Structure formats: C-alpha cells, structure tokens
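Table S2 (continued). Query chain:
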Amino acid sequence: MNKESMLRRAFNQAMVNDAVRYADEAADFLVVKNYMLRYAKKHGIDVTAEEIEAYIHSQRRRWKEALRDFTFQDWIMK
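Corresponding output:
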C-alpha cells in the first residue's frame, strides 16, 4: 500500500469513528490524527505527523467547499 492510499483509507475509517462528533473541530482533529498515526504504524507505512495533519486539513477544506452548496437547503429545512 502506498502512502497516498494509506492516508485516504485511514482518514475514511477515522471519520466513521464514533468519537468524531463534528461539533468540536479541535477534538475531532486529534481523534482523526491519532487514528491515522496508529493505522500507519499498524500497516508499516512511514508517514510523519505533519503529513497526516496536512492531509486532514486538505480534506476538511474539500468537505467545507462541498457543503457550501447546501446552505439554502439548510435554511429551508429550519
């Protein structure tokens, strides 16, 4: 498994963790980061904490950009 594939798989698995509540970004960040570090160690992939942090931040940006289109729907649903 290459590094990019590992980061993607680890991130996806970390985000479905019950500890990630989407309410406290700082706490969620630590949960995801810790999970990804353990995943990399388990699979023998050499990745730094900085690389994992950068990947998490890039995925958060993509997620926020994707959710921009749903502001009207959120307003209607209230």
